[in-house]
Amino acid sequence: MHIDRKFPTSRLRRLRANNTLINLVSESSLSSNDLIQPLFIKENLKGTEKIDSMPGVLRYSKESVLDEVDDLLENNINTIALFPAIDSSKKDSNGNEALNKSNLICESIQKIKTKFPEMLIIADVALDPYTDHGHDGILKGNYVDNDLTLDVLKAQSLILAESGADILAPSDMMDGRIGIIREALETADYKNTILLSYAAKYNSKFYGPFRDAVKSASNLGKSSKSSYQMSPTNKDEAIHEVAIDINEGADIVMVKPGMPYLDIISLIKNTFKVPTFAYQVSGEYSMLKLAINKGWLDSDVMIESLTSFKRAGADAILTYAAKEISREINTK
Ligand code: PBG
Fold this sequence. Notes:
alpha/beta, eight-stranded parallel barrel, binds ligand PBG
């Protein structure tokens, strides 16, 4: 494409003269419908508790999360992603608690769905909140065994679907898990359970605060997830991962983290034209929030960051700032 008009025929500043014009020609926008709120639920907690490494983010008890869900709906947030922080005494090497039908997350899903059936619930499929080594799967020696893990993820998926989760989100990066889970769901007649695959999930240090939040950081210690999460150096591999997951039955694919991986979001959306989500992960959120709280950055950087996801092609965004940003965009 070649544009021949030159200055002063072309003055790009004409369309920037005021906010009405700027909004009129804006190419992407952020709405409450694009925002998904992750929530941390903790066992044996009264009320709520702060998370040191995530300013403004709380852990909720099974009971207090109900008030928060109510408040989210009031603020036009209609989708949540739940993550459990279970008692360390319940963690073991195989993550058995993940398969307990009345565990924290299953009970919470049931409670929320009973009281607020209109709230869409995304449930994470992975073992890291449940294992005493903090890995997403079953270890054989020091290596996470892919196929042993698949059996457990399949069972975990079925109990989450049975509890009432609308969307299952495998975040474990095992090979073949979308196909196995999809087949299990079809067989068990959960034909409309949606699979949101964390398809291009990178081995990122930006997950640090999340591991604090679900209390898996000390379990994982210095061990790395590099044998299953993607290397930050790779882009073609993201296409390969996403293609496989779509073929295996994913309804939505996700790129994670977000802002350092905007090129990947754009590439995936343009290549596959399927619903593509992005995750503004804990480290991204905390960096921005801390600088905002310190007065070093204006609070609008949060909207700017989330808008960049939309511009890159994300259809929806998981962000810890979902509620506050939704409130902000609806009152502006
Ligand atoms: C675990 C999981 C992680 C996140 C979501 N699910 C962490 C990890 O892979 O270690 C990270 C989210 C965030 O950092 O906000 N399966």
